[in-house]
Write a structure and sequence with these properties.
The structure holds two protein chains of two kinds. Chain A has two helices and four strands, in the order βαβαββ. Chain A is α+β, with helices and mostly antiparallel strands. In chain A, α1 links the parallel β1 and β2. In chain B, the strands form two sheets. A two-stranded antiparallel sheet of chain B has the order 1-2. Chain B has a two-stranded antiparallel ribbon with strand order 3-4. The chains are: A alpha+beta, B mainly alpha.
């Protein structure tokens, strides 16, 4: 994905609820309109991450998948 | 294969396995399968599986002087759980979601600890989120309501712990992790093909058992279906209890509420009509199915411990099974902790505990005895509606959500 990533959060190997807990914590440390790349391996995250973005009003930019690793891109509102 | 044919197969696959199945749909299907299990012999449960698996291990190692332990393939719940595991494996393969996912060491430890706590909670409290709660509410057991209360308390405490741990012990959830055997993004047909082969193989293998043992064959086939449905929908009772305190999102609680409603209705019909019985005595035994002597303190204590364990592990008894089938190694440790500790708790801890606890703290409470069948059903439906109202209100206001 063609996006300037400001921070990467590695949640590979973590399963529910850790990825979302860490995502929420990390976003708090970032500034508005910065982009976070979250790496994860829990299939549940495919629905959880966009869902969390919608709930919290952050922008979900998209997801890529590579060899079992999901890469989520979130822009802090 | 021509391009058109390839496209058609892909479309078919996409329809069923391209996306996660909705939880409310899974809730209905699972409740219906639960009713089927009850009609065949006895309701759906999770902890019975681990107790049987664990007892088989100890019996094989000649420890603890266990005797008369039924082998897994001959035990209703041992077999049910095994097929649920294989069904989840098949479901993950079909959806191209299987991968061996090895988390950081701290997470594996939490998995093990969670499993041990669940074993303790399920044996003390008599029941887990499936047998004690999903089936327990359907059984119109008053103790099941207290058990659920215990789960709420345990889940809340454990979530607060996880949040604290993230800030103060970050190393528990950070570190090297490994992901192996994942499907290639966008392409890759080996997983779905393997999934189909496995499903067909299991259906044929266990379908043949109908020739000698109907009950076991039914438990096997239903177990397989349950496993596929659980993995495809990611149905999770931990979520149902935890989500209001976390993101406030309501899909998981709603899915469970639907399962409860359908289960309550189906079980009540069976109990009220005395299905399959021909004497009042037998009908009474049937009516008391899955009503355990745990009202109320026993259910509260056991439920809280179980709630702690399941949240720390990241899956309840059945959630552990389907996530293990999907390749999540943290939950392999949870399953290990559960099956190794459950027989120990059952043999060495529960008797003393039940002895110390006063009689009035561990009663069988069959609500129709107090309110009649209609009254009891109404009570449960009122509780479900109240839960629904709370969840929806919390979703809107975010009052209790931490994240």
């Amino acid at each position: 994905m063609d996006v300037n990533v400001d921070k990467t959060l590695d949640c590979k190997g973590l399963s529910c609820p850790m990825p979302i807990l860490k995502l929420a914590k990390e976003i708090k440390t970032m500034e508005s309109s910065q982009v976070l790349e979250l790496l994860g391996t829990d299939p549940g995250s495919k629905a959880d991450v966009p869902g969390w973005c919608e709930k919290t009003g952050n922008e979900f930019l998209g997801m890529e998948e590579e060899e079992g690793v999901y890469k989520f891109y979130i822009r802090k509102s | 294969m021509g391009n058109d044919e390839k496209g058609a197969w892909r479309q078919l696959w996409n329809t069923f396995f391209g996306k996660t199945w909705p939880m409310w749909a899974a809730g209905i299907l699972l409740a219906l399968l639960n009713v089927c299990l009850f009609l065949v012999k006895s309701p759906w449960g999770g902890s019975g599986t681990y107790i049987n698996w664990g007892e088989n291990i100890y019996s094989g190692l000649k420890l603890f002087g266990l005797s008369g332990i039924k082998p897994v393939l001959s035990h209703t719940y041992g077999l049910l759980g095994l097929l649920t595991l294989l069904g989840a494996f098949a479901g993950a393969l079909l959806g191209r979601e299987f991968a061996l996912r090895i988390p950081p060491p701290g997470e594996m430890f939490k998995g093990l600890l969670g499993g041990i706590l669940m074993a303790l909670g399920a044996t003390l409290g008599i029941g887990c989120t499936i047998g004690g709660f999903l089936s327990g509410w359907a059984a119109l057991s008053g103790g099941a309501i207290i058990l659920a209360l215990g789960f709420v308390i345990g889940t809340y405490i454990a979530l607060r712990y996880l949040l604290w741990e993230m800030e103060n012990l970050p190393r528990m959830s950070t570190g090297k992790s490994y992901t192996w055997l994942a499907a290639k993004a966008g392409g890759g047909v080996w997983q779905p093909i393997l999934g189909v082969m496995l499903t067909v193989f299991l259906l044929v293998l266990f379908g043949r058992r109908f020739q000698n043992d109907n009950v076991l064959a039914m438990f096997a086939i239903i177990g397989l279906l349950i496993g596929i449905i659980l993995q495809r929908s990611r149905f999770c009772i931990v979520r149902a209890f935890r989500e209001p305190f976390m993101t406030g999102e309501s899909e998981a609680p709603l899915g469970v509420m639907v399962a409860l409603a359908v289960g309550i209705f189906g079980f009540t019909v069976i109990k009220y009509m005395g299905v399959g019985t021909s004497t009042p005595g037998a009908a009474r035994v049937l009516a008391m199915t899955w009503v355990y002597p745990h009202f109320w303190l026993r259910a509260l204590i056991g439920g809280t411990i179980f709630g702690l364990g399941m949240t720390v592990a990241g899956g309840c008894a059945i959630g552990t099974i389907w996530r293990a089938g999907e390749g999540q190694v943290k939950l392999w440790f949870s399953a290990l902790g559960f099956m190794l500790f459950a027989p120990i708790s059952k043999k060495f801890i529960v008797p003393g505990f039940a002895h110390i606890l006063p009689e009035w703290a561990q009663q069988k409470m069959f609500l129709p005895d107090w309110f009649g069948y209609w009254g009891a059903m109404l009570l449960f439906f009122v509780l479900i509606v109240l839960w629904y109202v709370f969840v929806k209100w919390n979703e809107r206001t975010g009052r209790f959500s931490a994240v």
